[in-house]
Amino acid sequence: MDTNCMTVSRFILERQRDFPGATGEFTTLLNSLMTAFKAVSSAVNRAGIYQIYGLAGDTNVTGDDQKKLDVLSNDVFVNMLKSSYTVCGMVSEENERVIRVPSANEKQGKYIVCFDPLDGSSNIECLASIGSIFGILKKPDLNEPFKEVDVLQPGDNYIAAGYTLYGSATMLVLALKNHGVHGFMYDPTIGEFVLTDPDMRIKEKGKIYSTNEGYYKYLSPGIQKYIDSKKFPETGEPYAARYIGSMVADMHRTIKYGGIFMYPANKKSPQGKLRLLYECNPMAFIVEQAGGAASTGEKRILEVVPKAIHERCPVFIGSKKDVEEVLESMKKHDH
């Protein structure tokens, strides 16, 4: 047993010293998120025993069937963040509108959190890996009351983002602006996330592509040509195809092993399927901090200014050279 382990709280407190004006609010916010991750991890592990598999009987605002675990996870996130008194507003995949947090003692938190409390929940009952995704923003004007439009900021404004993967182990991957990407494994024996993967970096080029090829016939010629070039290369070995259908699981593999994850716009989903604020932006932020690239096919994802809280966005994300290759193919064959 490591008697000097680096927990998330210790990690953040050490970096807090680099910011003389730090108030400790960000640390408090992360601690509330970690409580939510632990609660969701426990619920996911015991879902079968507690009989909380299955549908809750509703669909969320983006048209997905809500699972019982979706609803439970969302409630945990909202309650933990509200009670931290560090946030002024939240955006969740499960809520149609922005969640406003009333001020406590006339003092309102300065942070905005966008999150998908349980990504990949269609995989719950087959026990595939699922996860939670989050991104953290600051209120644009700290001297003004929070307005719902304050959440509509480009991803370049995020100060931190991360995801928690619930799989063979529970792992938190945390990206801090200009301070890298770091992985923390949950140790249930001490109830803490412990640093196991400091300064995570994504390979410049990988050997894996990840996309739902069931939609191949709906894709643009440029994307089809790119996929074909990876399956049937003129020289060298073909890429391996890997697709789980849970963005957190697919992205974690992409960050660890390199390669590209794609969910492009297609004839059935002309705007793409994944949501900008709480799926694309956090993942793009993480990947860029780790040395990778993330594009809509036309521009960096982090440059997109959202117009609606549940706006969708095409995604090409992963190793820099792999992303550049698919963009070049689209430029050549689609324009």
What key attributes describe this structure?
335 residues; alpha+beta; eight-stranded mixed sheet; five-stranded mixed sheet; 30% helix; globular
Task: Going across the biggest sheet, name each strand in turn.
Answer: 4-3-5-6-7-8-9-10
Q: What are the segments in which pLDDT stays under 50 over at least 5 consecutive residues?
A: 52-57
Helix count, DSSP H or I runs of 4 or more residues: 8
Beta-strand fraction estimate: 15-25%
Radius of gyration, taken over Cα atoms and rounded to an integer in Å: 20 Å
Strand runs, count: 15
Question: What is the helix fraction of residues, given as a range?
Answer: 25-40%
Terminal Cα separation, in Å?
A: 58 Å
Describe the global form: globular
The helix-strand sequence is: HHHEEHEEEEEEEEEHEHEHEEH
Largest β-sheet summary: 8 strands, mixed
- Average pLDDT level: 90
Q: Which structural class is indicated by helix and strand composition?
A: alpha+beta
Please, could you describe this protein's structure?
The protein contains 8 helices and 15 strands. The protein has 335 residues and is an alpha+beta fold. An 8-stranded mixed sheet has the order 4-3-5-6-7-8-9-10, sandwiched between helices. Strands 12-11-13-15-14 form a 5-stranded mixed sheet, with helices on both faces. Helix 2 packs antiparallel against helix 4 (68-82) and helix 5 crosses helix 8 (320-334).
